[in-house]
């Protein structure tokens, strides 16, 4: 009798594991040491986590902003390049995203996110393309 219960229990547990294994999960992508400007405030270092429906911006001062995907109106991207150096010259890239969105009160706010690492460009573009094409 115990063997029957054990085999029944193992069959049910393996079925439930298969059910949970088929569900897809979405993990947030995190980007650290970015430069963010929200509103007309000064540039501050920030960390951003991009989730399925929102972007969470955490500043070093402890303040947190959440920008929901459906609240974004327009966005833009530019790649600024500068020549650096005197004897040995190199190009320094700075990728900048401008985002216009509605805050909790329904007022329009602008935000700029800047970073040097080009690997962050595609995830930001994929997130913002859910809103629509880039504004000209």
Written description of the protein model:
This protein is α+β, with helices and mostly antiparallel strands and 136 residues long. Helix content is 22%, strand content 46%. It contains two helices and seven strands. Strands 4-3-2-1-7-6-5 form a seven-stranded antiparallel beta sheet, with helices on one face. A hairpin with a 4-residue loop joins strand 3 (54-59) and strand 4. The termini are far apart.
Give the low-pLDDT segments.
4-25
Structural class: alpha+beta
Number of helical regions: 2
- Indicate the percent of residues in helices: 10-25%
Keywords:
single chain, 136 residues, seven-stranded antiparallel β-sheet, 2 helices, 7 strands, alpha+beta, globular, 22% helix
Question: How are the SSEs placed, and which strands pair?
Answer:
Elements: H1 2-22, E1 29-38, E2 44-50, E3 54-59, E4 64-68, E5 72-84, E6 90-102, E7 108-115, H2 121-129
Antiparallel strand pairs: 1-2, 1-7, 2-3, 3-4, 5-6, 6-7
What would a concise description of this structure say?
With 136 residues, the protein is α+β, with helices and mostly antiparallel strands. 22% of the residues lie in helices and 46% in strands.
